[in-house]
Design goal:
This protein is 37% helix and 13% strand. With 310 residues, it is α/β, with parallel strands linked by helices. A seven-stranded parallel sheet has the order 3-4-5-8-9-10-11. It has a two-stranded antiparallel ribbon with strand order 1-2. The longest helix is centred in the last third of the chain and has 18 residues. It is globular and about 50 Å long. Bound molecules: NADP nicotinamide-adenine-dinucleotide phosphate. InterPro entries: AKR, AKR_Detox_Biosynth, Aldo/ket_reductase_CS, NAD(P)_OxRdtase_dom_sf, NADP_OxRdtase_dom.
Amino acid sequence: MTKKVQIGKTDLYANPIGFGANAVGGHNLYPNLDEEVGKDLVRTALDKGITLLDTAFIYGPKRSEELIGEVLQERGNRSDVIIATKGAHKFVGDDTVLDNSPSFLKQCVEDSLQRLQTDYIDLFYIHFPDEDTPKDEAVGALKELKDQGKIRSIGVSNFSLEQLKEANKDGYVDVYQGEYNLFQRDAEKELLPYAAENGISFVPYFPLAAGLLAGKYDKNTKFNDLRADMPLFQGEKFQESLAKVEKLREIVDKKPQDMANVVLAWYLTRDAIDLVIPGAKKPAQIESNLQTLNVELSSQEIKAIDEIFS
Ligand SMILES: NC(=O)c1ccc[n+]([C@@H]2O[C@H](COP(=O)([O-])OP(=O)(O)OC[C@H]3O[C@@H](n4cnc5c(N)ncnc54)[C@H](OP(=O)(O)O)[C@@H]3O)[C@@H](O)[C@H]2O)c1
């Protein structure tokens, strides 16, 4: 059985390989998603030993949470699963605005509970900061929900360092989720050190740089989803990124696991990172990502990977 890791200072313990479920029912993010395949992704993740599922209201919207809720109902093993979800987006007509007000966040949690068909959420994140709400007040609302047993831990995502500090004024923030991968390392300057110093678990999103760090794209690959607009996938930047991936391949080729595994294992060597949440669109990718647990990286390899992308 896989050794579980404690998530920061919470009483949650998870397989360090989680599953990022934005491609489960996330029709607003990816075209041509099949909901049955989405449910199979969740089933595969849980069958193979993944314990943490990462979702959000806005994935779908609503559909990712609803499909996860359906799978949890059919399996009946709620207590074995750590559900992480997020809220802050509010629909105003056809537009979405961000709202971190205590009353809205409390409503978000109630609505997520309904969609997930459960009576508690293991980890609830404020998905994005709004401009108006003092962040300690926003987190204060989540602390009330934690005291009521509706959520078990408190997360924030996409906050600046200043917003994170304000949010954590009373020490209530358990988890920070932010973009971090070998191509996007800004978090190393301030956010990762702050998280490490304050016992906050840092969950990196886009760990595979939306698939680029799985080493399967080349200069001719075309994208028709959210990647079509991501800077990493544009023109010269894309060519430079592919060249770095080829350098990484020289290290990966000496190991029995795949590139995605080596990359995910590298993050797990960082202070403050307890777990990763790679996304997947095929069950086989989930099984493959679990091979990360078998990767052994020497200190030289950790340094060499660092240098390719520094
Ligand atoms: N807090 C936030 O604001 C925020 C923002 C973004 C994401 N997230 C979370 O982070 C999670 C991960 O992000 P992400 O899914 O967008 O990006 P990612 O994990 O960097 O990349 C996932 C994509 O890589 C490819 N892939 C995965 N495993 C692979 C393997 N073993 N071999 C080859 N290709 C593989 C798949 O795409 P293809 O098959 O299409 O190549 C998959 O959809 C999300 O699911 C979500 O839960 C949070």
